[in-house]
Design goal:
This protein is an alpha+beta fold and 281 residues long. It contains eight helices and ten strands. Strands 1, 2, 3, 4, 5, 6, 7, 8, 9 and 10 form a ten-stranded mixed β-sheet that branches.
Length: 281
């Protein structure tokens, strides 16, 4: 690819859910060791990449400066691997709520690495992109690999899995939860037993972060109590979003119609392959 063949293009950056999340230990550097399963959703942000003389990022920057934004940081890091002088203008259109445990910022950064690796002709492998990404965020590698995965370590040791792809109702209370707030709570369980890899997650698994979030945030507790009336509900990541699987879109929409006024909600579908995969061909 030459500079002349690069044209403005919009890429998806899908949300994710943690089908379960067990904290199994903590490293000396403070990072938590975990077992989890990631699955993508059809709910996605959009990033539009256009050739430019310099690196520019605009749109919803989640309340930080351009230089602090994860997309800018990912692009700046990748630029060191490119011999092309050209920059890029990146416009972010957010659909994934921030501070909800849906991975929006990490997904945006991963899509940026994938797109600019192509446009800037860096020729880095997915594994090399993952090595860059994990330094920016522990869950960025799963978005780069683009396949639903069983994850261990701090979330970077990935094994592809193919769980069912149901419809989900995702509900987000009117509260943002910072990950460090949950991980530094003294009541957080950090000694869940290691499990063998499998693809059923509601029968005998849980989210160890959920009791902490429910205690700290009544909004999360109340929303889980509501959604559990329709289907087994669970929090994703460190919150604040919750989700429940449904056999049909109609069943999910039935629950959606009864949602409390004080929350955002989405009917979306689980996907084992990220939408970004099609853009790498």
């Amino acid at each position: 690819m030459t500079n002349q063949t690069w044209r403005k293009q919009t890429w998806p950056a899908p949300a994710k859910i943690n089908l379960f999340l067990h904290i199994v230990g903590q490293r000396a550097d403070g990072y938590h060791l975990l077992q989890t399963a990631f699955q993508f959703l059809t709910l996605a942000d959009e990033l539009t990449f256009s050739p430019a003389d310099t690196l520019q990022v605009e749109g919803d920057l989640s309340g930080v400066t351009m230089e602090q934004n994860l997309v800018y940081r990912a692009a700046s890091t990748l630029k060191q691997h490119s011999t092309i002088a050209q920059g890029c203008h990146i416009a972010i259109k957010k659909r994934i709520p921030d501070g909800a445990g849906l991975g929006g910022g990490s997904s945006d950064a991963a899509t940026t690495l994938l797109a600019l690796n192509k446009y800037w002709q860096c020729h880095l492998s997915l594994q090399q992109l993952c090595e860059i990404g994990v330094k920016l965020g522990a869950d960025i590698p799963v978005f780069i690999q683009g396949h639903a995965a069983w994850a261990e370590g701090i979330g970077e040791k990935l094994t592809p899995i193919s769980p069912p792809e149901p419809y989900y109702l995702v509900a987000v209370p009117d509260v943002k939860i910072a990950t460090p707030e949950i991980f530094t709570d003294k009541s957080l369980t950090r000694d869940s037993p290691l499990r063998k890899m499998h693809t059923t997650f509601f029968e005998d698994c849980r989210n160890d972060c959920e009791p902490v979030a429910r205690r700290r945030y009544p909004q999360v507790d109340n929303l889980l109590n509501w959604l559990n009336q329709f289907a087994p509900a669970r929090m994703t990541g460190t919150g604040s979003a919750i989700f429940a699987p449904f056999e049909s879109e109609a069943d999910a929409l039935h629950a959606f119609d009864a949602k409390p006024d004080q929350c955002q909600a989405f009917v979306t579908k689980g996907k084992n392959l990220s939408q970004t995969v099609d853009f790498l061909k």
